[in-house]
Amino acid sequence: xxILAGECVNHYQEKASVKGAQGVVLGYTELELFIGxxxxxxxxFKTAELHAQYAAKQxxx
Length: 61
Hints:
Elements: H1 2-18, E1 24-26, H2 31-34, E2 44-46, H3 47-59
Parallel strand pairs: 1-2
């Protein structure tokens, strides 16, 4: 599993660098299992966390 995780991290690091990304959005919650904030050099956004924050904000309205 760790080999796959390493390949996954490398793949997304390369994609972000080549495309000149200003940030990284993990659109699949499973990616958070393989990629951590320490693995990327750009701002890092976890969609599951963003959705949870928005849902909590809406619930408190």
